[in-house]
C-alpha cells in the first residue's frame, strides 16, 4: 500500500477525468493505495495544494470533460523553479511516495527528469495533437478530430450557400494529425500541416480549378503551425510559456487575406481553438483513458518506475519515459498522401 499523488498538466483534454477514475478505482480496489490529487499540475506539488481522492470523488467522472484536478503549464525546472529538490520536498511534506503524471510532452518531460533522479514516477500520455512517440494514440485526439470534423461538415453548407472559401484553423503546433484526420473525415479540399510547408500559389490554383469545374466553394483546413515554403509568415507570437513554446496563432487570418487577394474569391476563416479540447470525450477516448489509468497503477504496483503507459496495436503496455519523449511523433506521410488524393 502506498500514498500516491496524481496530477494533470498542460492543456485540458477530454478523457483526463476518466484516467483519474481508472487509477483511483483500480488502485483502491485492487491494491489498497491512497491517492492525493495535486492541484494545477506541477504547481500542486510545489505549493502543497491538494485534494484527497477516493470512491466518492471519482463518481460520475467518466463522461466529464476537463480535469477535476485543474491544470497549468508550471515547470519546476524553469529558472528559480527548484527542480527535483523542490518536487521531492513537496512529496515529503505531503507524505507522497510516488507521482502519476498525466500530460503531454512538457508534463512528461518533467516526469522524465524526475525519473532520472530516481523519483518514483509513472506517466500517462495526454495530448489532442497525438504527437507523443512511444504510443499509437493519445487520448483526447479522437475527440478533437470529431469536434473538428463536425465543424467542417457544418461549414460545407454555409460555404456552398455563399460561394465562399472557408479556412478552418485547427490545433497542431508541430504535427498535423488533427488537421489531416479531420480534413479527410470532413472532405476538405486542401489540408496544410507543419510537416509539409505549403506553396500558396498551389493552394490557390487548386481552389481556382474547383471553381472552373463549377464547384464555387472550397474548404481549407490548416494546422496552427503550418507555414508557407518561403517562410514569410509572421503568425508566431513573441510571448512564450514556461516551457519556452511560442504561442501560435494567425495562420487562418493570413490565409483568409492571401487566398482572397490571389484568387479574388470571397474568403472567411474560422479558428476552432479551445473548443477542440473541451467537452465530453468520445466513447473511444473514454475507453482508452480508462485502460491507461488502470494500467498506470498496475505498472506502479508491480514495481515499474520511470515508465509511460502506451497503446501498441490493441494492447496497453509500458515504455520508458525517456524513449517516448526522445522525439515528437510527426504526421504519417502515408496518411497525408491519402489526403492529397482529394485536394482541389
Tell me roughly what share of residues is in helical segments. 25-40%
CATH architecture of the largest domain: 3-Layer(aba) Sandwich
The largest pleated sheet is described as:
7 strands, mixed
> Could you report the average pLDDT, rounded to the nearest whole number?
93
CATH class of the largest domain: Alpha Beta
Proportion of beta-strand residues: 15-25%
Pathway: Carbohydrate degradation; glycolysis; D-glyceraldehyde 3-phosphate and glycerone phosphate from D-glucose: step 3/4
Pfam family, one: PFK
Cofactor: Mg(2+)
Protein name: 6-phosphofructokinase
SSE blueprint and pairings:
Blueprint: E1 3-8, H1 16-31, E2 34-38, H2 42-47, E3 50-53, H3 83-94, E4 98-103, H4 105-116, E5 121-125, H5 141-162, E6 165-170, H6 177-186, E7 190-192, H7 200-212, E8 218-223, E9 236-240, E10 246-248, H8 251-263, E11 267-271, H9 283-301, E12 307-312, E13 315-320, H10 321-324, H11 333-340
Parallel strand pairs: 1-2, 1-4, 4-5, 5-12, 6-8, 6-11, 7-8
Antiparallel strand pairs: 2-3, 9-10, 12-13
Amino acid at each position: 500500500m502506498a500514498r500516491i499523488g496524481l496530477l494533470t498538466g498542460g492543456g485540458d483534454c477530454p478523457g483526463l477525468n476518466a484516467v483519474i477514475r481508472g487509477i483511483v478505482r483500480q488502485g483502491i480496489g485492487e491494491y489498497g493505495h491512497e491517492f492525493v490529487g495535486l492541484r494545477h499540475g506541477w504547481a500542486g506539488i510545489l505549493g502543497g495544494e491538494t485534494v484527497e481522492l477516493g470512491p466518492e470523488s471519482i463518481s460520475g467522472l467518466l463522461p466529464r470533460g476537463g480535469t477535476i484536478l485543474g491544470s497549468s503549464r508550471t515547470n519546476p525546472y524553469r529558472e528559480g523553479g527548484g527542480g527535483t529538490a523542490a518536487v521531492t520536498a513537496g512529496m515529503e511534506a505531503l507524505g507522497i511516495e510516488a507521482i502519476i503524471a498525466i500530460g503531454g510532452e512538457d508534463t512528461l518531460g518533467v516526469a522524465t527528469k524526475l525519473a532520472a533522479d530516481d523519483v518514483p514516477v509513472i506517466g500517462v500520455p495526454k495530448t489532442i495533437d497525438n504527437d507523443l512517440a512511444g504510443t499509437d494514440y493519445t487520448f483526447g485526439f479522437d475527440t478533437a478530430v470529431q469536434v473538428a470534423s463536425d465543424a467542417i461538415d457544418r461549414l460545407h453548407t454555409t460555404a456552398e450557400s455563399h460561394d465562399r472559401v472557408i479556412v478552418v484553423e485547427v490545433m497542431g503546433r508541430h504535427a498535423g494529425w488533427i488537421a489531416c484526420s479531420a480534413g479527410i473525415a470532413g472532405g476538405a479540399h486542401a489540408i496544410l500541416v507543419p510537416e509539409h510547408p505549403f506553396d500558396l500559389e498551389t493552394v490557390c490554383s487548386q481552389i481556382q480549378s474547383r471553381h472552373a469545374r463549377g464547384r464555387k466553394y472550397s474548404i481549407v483546413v490548416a494546422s496552427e503551425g503550418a507555414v508557407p515554403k518561403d517562410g514569410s509568415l509572421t503568425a508566431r507570437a513573441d510571448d512564450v510559456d514556461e516551457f519556452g513554446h511560442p504561442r501560435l496563432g494567425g495562420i487562418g487570418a493570413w490565409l483568409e487575406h492571401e487566398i482572397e487577394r490571389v484568387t479574388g474569391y470571397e474568403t472567411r476563416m474560422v479558428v476552432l481553438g479551445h473548443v477542440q479540447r473541451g467537452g465530453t470525450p468520445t466513447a473511444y477516448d473514454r475507453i482508452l483513458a480508462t485502460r491507461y489509468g488502470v494500467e498506470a497503477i498496475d505498472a506502479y504496483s508491480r514495481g515499474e518506475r520511470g515508465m509511460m503507459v502506451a497503446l501498441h496495436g490493441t494492447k496497453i503496455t509500458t515504455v520508458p519515459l525517456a524513449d517516448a519523449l526522445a522525439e515528437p511523433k510527426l504526421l504519417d506521410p502515408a496518411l497525408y498522401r491519402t489526403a492529397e488524393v482529394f485536394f482541389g
